[in-house]
Specification:
Length: 155
């Protein structure tokens, strides 16, 4: 790997740290604050309506008992429900509540506002260049993920 690519990687790492800082500030501005691990559970469950405890534990890369404890806390605060899976009554499906949906929508809006505040301070040309670079990066990263998944399936 040449030095220029290493320099770009270091610059991206620094930019990601700034991005995480902006997003964290938007998250922390919410009251009441929901811990990051619980927010992650809500985001996972909201993006897949067929999430059960084992799928959640796998997505979080934790043991099922840890995932269950996170769900216990979310259920106690009214943000998550456990319901019997209509396809298999032995399974429990996780579902977010309307309160959780509102919380995630508010968080998304606050994050976008925080990002817009930063982007607004950039020149239009810099925003355009950033967008093109991010799209290019995502396309290559997605292709690499597909190649890696393909390799796992054929192995």
């Amino acid at each position: 790997m040449d030095d220029r690519v290493t320099d770009v990687a270091a610059a991206i790492e620094a930019a990601v740290e700034s991005l995480v800082s902006v997003l964290d500030a938007a998250r922390l501005a919410h009251s009441p604050a929901v811990p990051p691990a619980q927010l992650r559970v809500l985001m996972i469950v909201s993006s897949n309506r067929h999430t059960n405890m084992s799928r959640l534990a796998e997505a979080l890369d934790v043991v099922p008992s840890s995932a269950s404890r996170l769900c216990d806390r979310l259920e106690a605060t009214g943000l998550l429900r456990r319901v019997p899976d209509p396809r298999d009554r032995r399974e429990v499906r996780l579902m977010i509540t309307q309160s959780a949906r509102r919380l995630l929508d508010q968080l998304r809006d606050r994050r976008r506002e925080a990002l817009a505040d930063v982007l607004d301070r950039m020149t239009p040309a810099a925003r355009h260049d950033l967008l093109r670079a991010l799209q290019s990066f995502a396309a290559v990263a997605d292709a690499q993920d597909e190649d890696n998944e393909q390799g796992l399936r054929t192995a």
